Amino acid sequence: MEKTSEEFQGKASLPFSSVLNDFSQRHVVDEEEKILSFAEQAKRTCEDEGHEAFSLSGVVFSEDNMEDILPLHVNAEKTIDVHVLQQEVVHQAVQETTEKLQTHFAAEKKRMEEEHIKALEIAKDSAIEALGADMHHQLTEGLANLRQEIAQDIAQILSGFIGEKMTQDVLKQFAAKLAGQVVDANQFLILEGNEKLFEQLKKQQGFNSSQFEFHPTNSTEIRLRRGEVVVATQLSSLLASLQELIR
Fold first, then answer.
1. Which three-class secondary structure state does DSSP give residue 95?
2. Distance CA 222, CA 207 (A)
3. Whether 191 contacts 197, CB under 8 Å
4. 3-state secondary structure of 144
5. Three-state secondary structure string covering 162-192
6. Which residues face 214 on adjacent strands?
7. Which of 136, 167, 197, 229 could cross-link 204 (Cys pair, CB 3.0–4.6 Å)?
8. CA nearest 235: which of 199, 205, 190?
9. Considering only CA atoms, which of 121, 133, 99, 110 is closest in space to residue 206?
10. What is the widest separation between alpha-carbon atoms in the chain?
11. How far apart are CA 150 and CA 229, in angstroms?
């Protein structure tokens, strides 16, 4: 009985796999090798069949397509500089903002210039209109003075022939009437100057434009003359103001 127990203990100390032939270490290794060799053979068969099918498909990949197909760790050679990218974005935003501001400022400048020119034209027309009224007054006085001077000359001539038979007042009245006819009918007064001023003179109430012959000129000078004789020299006081308006 003791011998049997010792034999059992001796056998029990051996690996359990050595007792069962189906689960022995060598048998397991042989089965693993068979399984691995079968898996490798199946893998090679699949790869060969896939390669053959891909070759028959005629598909050709370019380098650009390969960059998209390759894994991220393979395509990671092309790194992106975030700082440079930020600078480019900021530069583009500054450029677009600058262009918008330049366009806005140009339009605003043009609008202000147009308003300024319009305001100057209004002020110029108003000033010329006022000068036209003043000119009408001075022309009327100049014409009256001219007639008076002619009347005096005629009175002196007539007095030599008529003597004392006509009173001095009657003689002056006759001479004034005769002088008016000479000025109005025989020879026009010539008015030279800016055409805008002529238009303002014609608008004045009581101004008889038929008494004048208008000669528009590009000059800023304004003259009233009879023949070659300058009559209204008093107009020179208006030239300084008028020259600034009609240039």
1. helix
2. 17
3. no
4. helix
5. HCCCCCHHHHHHHHHHHHHHHHHHHCCEEEE
6. 191
7. 136
8. 190
9. 133
10. 204
11. 13
Dig out the tokens for 41 from the structure: 């053979």
Token pair listed for 133: 């009224």
How many residues are listed for the chain in this entry? 247
Structure tokens at 78: 């092309």
Q: What are phi and psi of 142, to 5 degrees?
A: -65, -40
Q: Taking Cα atoms as reference points, which of 146, 130, 241 lies closest to residue 191?
A: 146
pTM for this structure?
A: 0.29
Residue type, 27: H
C-beta separation of 204 from 133 below 8 A: yes
Task: Give the model's pLDDT for residue 161.
Answer: 47
| Residue 50's pLDDT band (cuts 50, 70, 90) | low
Whether the pLDDT of residue 223 is over 60: the answer is yes
* Residue 60 Ramachandran class (φ > 0 left, ψ -120 to 50 alpha, else beta): beta
